[in-house]
Amino acid sequence: MSHNIDHVMLRAMTLEELVLLGPLWEAAELSYRPQGRDTQRNLADQWTANRDGFIGAFHGVDLVGSVLATEDGRRGWINRLAV
């Protein structure tokens, strides 16, 4: 599912788009550990387990926002919210 709001498309990210997260998180001054928990391999593993939880805000081809949403069946979390 996707939504287009004022020329910004909100949708689930693809595996290939995960490489766009690091630069966005750095620009948003979020904690980012590309040699630790945020390696592309770790992000890909997380994405595989929760594809719909990696939500990107795209303006054209540019990633301008992200959120990683998770849940345990009872509670939900919003992580890595960046714009």
Give a structural overview.
20% of the residues lie in helices and 39% in strands. The chain is α+β, with helices and mostly antiparallel strands and 83 residues long. It is built from 2 helices and 5 strands. Strands 1-2-3-4-5 form a 5-stranded antiparallel sheet, covered by helices on one side. The chain has helices at residues 21-27, 40-49; strands spanning 2-5, 8-12, 54-59, 62-71, 76-82. The protein starts with a strand and ends with a strand. Strand 1 (2-5) and strand 2 form a beta hairpin.
Distance N terminus to C terminus? 20 Å
Number of separate strands: 5
Query: What strand order characterises the main sheet?
Result: 1-2-3-4-5
Query: Helicity level, as a percent range?
Result: 10-25%
Order of helices and strands: EEHHEEE
Low-confidence stretches: none
Q: What is the alpha-carbon Rg in Å? A: 12 Å
Shape: globular
Mean pLDDT: 91
* Strand content bin: 35-45%
Major β-sheet profile: 5 strands, antiparallel
Classification by helices and strands: alpha+beta
Report the total helices. Answer: 2
